Amino acid sequence: MKSLLMEAIFAPTHVGWIGGKAPGVGAVRTPGQVPPSYSCLPIVRPGARGYDARGERSWFRETDRGPIMTADFFTMQPGETAAPLPPGPVLCTGTAAMRRIHRFFLWAYGEAPGLVRSVRAGDTERAAYVGEVLGNFDKVLHIHHEGEDLLMYPQLKERAPACALHVGLMLEQHRQVTQRLDAIGPVRLRWMETADEETAAELAALYEDLSALLNVHLRREVTEVMPAVDRVLTEKEAAAVGQHGIKQFDKKFMVSYLGMVLSTNPPADRAELFKEIPPPVRLAYRLVGRRMYRKQYSMLFPGRPVPETL
């Protein structure tokens, strides 16, 4: 899985989990409301490491070189168990690759609500720009999960039957993500045309709800499932998961998107990721992609330092 993304962090001792029923279809969290009951949604206590005094996420420390992660997000929490490891050697580096892409999604959806709220009421030009960027994020997330559903989880279930329960949990979380993306789509398009306050508040709340779910799913997939995947997928099969759907994206988008993926990963991961990219893509990124990324970041976050890439 050729990968992508940025670290988001909180201390295990300050995070609890809501047990019980999955939320109903289309359940929406309003600002300040605890996320709907779900088997593994986080309850964030104000003052927890990685959060400010109001309980708002502050996983990144801003520096003159951009946001820096403050801890390791991918840590198993009390009460969670990893899927049984199949016998045999490690066949692929899927876990490392998955961390990279998940860091990007954690960053993107941590920023999404604030991006929506950054648009002044009536500023349809900026709403259209921000909405297009968020729509691309949503498409990348959907295709990422689609690739796993088609090319990773059926193989894991077949080759390691003892992992069936974990496969079922991950697929259920994918279904929950799809529900939220389906709810976001029409609201995002309406907001792009009107930039009105009511629709903006609705869209920001929808993205907050999706972010809360992803903060759980993206971590648990890495900590509980990927070590088993590493023992059942070959490197070629793992690469196919990461490359799934890539042709559906515009080439210009992909090279600027690469900048976001690189910037949301630690330096060592950036270097490993860049080595995995085909030489023509590396050249395109260095010629135009890096500049496109820096321009897009500056337009999304005026006044912020642009994070380093390669």
Q: Which key phrases capture this entry?
A:
single chain; two-stranded antiparallel ribbon; 9 helices; 310 residues; mainly alpha
Describe this structure in words.
The chain has 310 residues and is mainly α. The chain has a single domain (12-248), classed as Up-down Bundle (Four Helix Bundle (Hemerythrin (Met), subunit A)). The protein contains 9 helices and 4 strands; from the N terminus they run E-E-E-E-H-H-H-H-H-H-H-H-H. The chain has helices at 94-117, 124-151, 153-159, 164-194, 197-229, 235-243, 251-263, 267-276, 279-300, and strands spanning 15-17, 42-44, 60-63, 66-69. The strands form 2 sheets. Strands 1-2 form a two-stranded antiparallel sheet. A two-stranded antiparallel ribbon has the order 3-4. Helix 1 (94-117) packs antiparallel against helix 2 (124-151) and helix 4 runs antiparallel to helix 5. The radius of gyration is 19 Å and the shape is globular.
